[in-house]
């Protein structure tokens, strides 16, 4: 309300809770504020997961809200039991479409007719969650195998370590098989190569082992050629904090670009990369063999600067700016032994430094990023051990 928006403007909500046993209570509280009456154009989509909030000093609940400055969203809200896709297990919609971006609610491996988790373990739940995602996507005339920009896969800590590799393998196999079917019928024009983020969490709704959260590009049906002309002046990148491009920088990130429209990036800082980043600074000692637990604040600050430097470089190289950023989510593990408050202050100061050096980012009262404490995160289901993971999503307005 402070910025002149209401619940009608909300596209998506991430509901993070400290204890999944309080899921029902959280829903009861949630629905007191977010109702059909307050959301004339449909209730926003939602993802709910348990996170180690208390360890990060964030209390028992943490809400992240994505807001649009218009009311052009379109939602899919199925409340009754059906055979094609699960009904919602809370006061939210299955998906929200806004300006060609389809924000899908977190999908569990629920059997639509029974609303029960399918049997067969994490890989079976994953396949069912992907099938549910595809059913929702087809309502908006798109597919997760051709239109997906980003998949965030939340993995429960209850999945045995030995079974995590099978999750990633099954997802790759499923999507590749679907793409093959589309190729056979000649529907492969404009197929995107999505990026993937795996997040290790304490628990999920219904004690699920896997939750899938896809973001898709649902192109409008139009024959009008794009009139987008890139601003070539944006490509004049400059050195920040002494960082210069190295070949190994290209192995730090995944990106998915829709030319002139969308730039999505997952930047993963592993222990190995942290050694490289910190060793480049003469004023910061190298990371020792004890890995994350041994990082000093100076080293974490150096890593934060590198993240902003590299994200800025990727934006510029693809003709985007920080003004286009819809969200910047920073995942940090509890093993970092740093509170959300301390880490937030560090990134705020780094962004201020960056703004003073480049004039490419606007500093306002609220930070342009959101910090998310997790048990682990990474680009692979078998290596969810990043020190910091950055999820950046930018869109041309």
List its salient traits:
397 residues; alpha+beta; 60s Ribosomal Protein L30, Chain: A; 2 domains; 8-stranded mixed β-sheet; 5-stranded mixed β-sheet; 18 strands; 25% helix; globular; EC 6.3.1.14; YjgF/YER057c/UK114
Number of domains: 2
Our estimate of the beta-strand percent is: 25-35%
- Morphology: globular
Q: Quickly count the helices.
A: 6
Order of helices and strands: EHEEEEEEEEHEHEEEEHHEHEEE
Radius of gyration: 21 Å
> Can you tell me the CATH class of the largest domain?
Alpha Beta
EC number: 6.3.1.14
Protein name: Putative endoribonuclease L-PSP family protein
Keywords: Ligase
GO biological process, one term: protein histidyl modification to diphthamide
Short characterization:
The protein has helices at residues 23-33, 122-138, 161-184, 271-279, 297-317, 340-358; strands at residues 10-17, 45-50, 61-67, 74-76, 95-98, 101-104, 107-108, 110-111, 116-117, 148-156, 195-201, 210-217, 253-258, 262-269, 325-333, 370-374, 376-378, 388-395. By secondary structure, the chain is α+β, with helices and mostly antiparallel strands. It has two domains: 1-222, RutC-like (60s Ribosomal Protein L30, Chain: A, 2-Layer Sandwich), CATH 3.30.1330.40; 231-397, RutC-like (60s Ribosomal Protein L30, Chain: A, 2-Layer Sandwich), CATH 3.30.1330.
């Amino acid at each position: 309300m402070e910025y002149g928006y209401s619940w009608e403007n909300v596209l998506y909500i991430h509901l993070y809770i400290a204890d999944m046993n309080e899921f029902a209570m959280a829903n009861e509280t949630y629905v007191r504020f977010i109702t059909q009456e307050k959301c004339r154009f449909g209730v926003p989509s939602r993802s709910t997961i348990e996170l180690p909030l208390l360890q990060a000093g964030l209390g028992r609940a943490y809400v992240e809200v994505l807001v649009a400055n218009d009311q052009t969203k379109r939602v899919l809200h199925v409340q009754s039991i059906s055979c094609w896709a699960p009904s919602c297990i809370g006061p939210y919609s299955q998906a929200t479409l806004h300006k060609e971006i389809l924000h899908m609610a977190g999908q569990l491996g629920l059997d639509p007719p029974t609303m029960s988790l399918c049997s067969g373990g994490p890989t079976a739940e994953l396949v069912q969650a992907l099938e549910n995602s595809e059913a929702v996507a087809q309502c908006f005339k798109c597919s997760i195998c051709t239109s997906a920009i980003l998949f965030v896969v939340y993995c429960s800590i209850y999945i045995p370590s030995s079974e995590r590799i099978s999750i990633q393998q099954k997802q790759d196999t499923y999507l590749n098989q679907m793409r093959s079917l589309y190729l056979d019928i000649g529907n492969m024009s404009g197929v995107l190569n999505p990026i993937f983020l795996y997040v290790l969490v304490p628990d999920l709704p219904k004690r699920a082992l896997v939750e899938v959260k896809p973001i898709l590009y649902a192109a409008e049906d139009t024959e009008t050629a794009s009139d987008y002309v890139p601003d070539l002046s944006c490509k004049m990148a400059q050195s920040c904090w002494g960082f210069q491009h190295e070949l190994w920088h290209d192995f730090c990130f995944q990106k998915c670009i829709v030319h002139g429209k969308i730039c999505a990036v997952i930047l993963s800082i592993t222990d190995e990369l942290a050694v490289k980043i910190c060793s480049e600074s003469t004023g910061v000692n190298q990371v020792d063999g004890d890995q994350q637990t041994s990082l000093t604040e100076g080293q974490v600050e150096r890593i934060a600067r590198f993240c902003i430097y590299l994200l800025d470089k990727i934006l510029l190289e693809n003709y985007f700016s920080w003004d286009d950023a819809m969200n910047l989510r920073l995942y940090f593990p509890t093993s970092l032994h740093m509170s959300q408050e301390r880490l937030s202050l560090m990134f705020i100061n780094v962004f201020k430094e960056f703004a003073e050096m480049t004039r490419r980012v606007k500093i306002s009262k609220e930070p342009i990023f959101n910090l998310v404490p997790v048990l682990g995160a990474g680009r692979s289901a078998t290596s969810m051990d990043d020190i910091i993971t950055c999820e950046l999503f930018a869109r041309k307005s």
